[in-house]
Write a structure and sequence with these properties.
Blueprint: E1 5-15, E2 22-34, E3 40-44, E4 51-55, E5 65-67
Antiparallel strand pairs: 1-2, 1-5, 2-3, 3-4
Length: about 70
């Protein structure tokens, strides 16, 4: 929804050498911001393209998590 941040998240399995347990570690590698109720997002594409506005669509694998930043 408008005002949410959306994240492209990569998941890595990490093994603890002492205990032998394996856990999932998630890391946000790209962030977008939902700017309107039509689910348009703004995101930075780097120096050449700058900040762009794109449509966030259902089923997109680009962004896998969403949330609100509570400060």
């Amino acid at each position: 929804k408008k005002g949410d941040f959306v994240f492209k998240v990569t998941t890595t399995l990490v093994k603890d050498d002492k205990t032998g347990t394996v856990k999932e570690v998630k890391k946000a590698t790209h962030i977008g911001y939902v700017v309107d109720n039509d689910k348009s997002i703004i995101e930075a594409y780097g120096r050449d393209k700058g900040v762009v506005k794109n449509k966030l669509y259902k089923g997109s694998s680009q962004f896998t998590e969403a949330g609100v930043l509570n400060v």
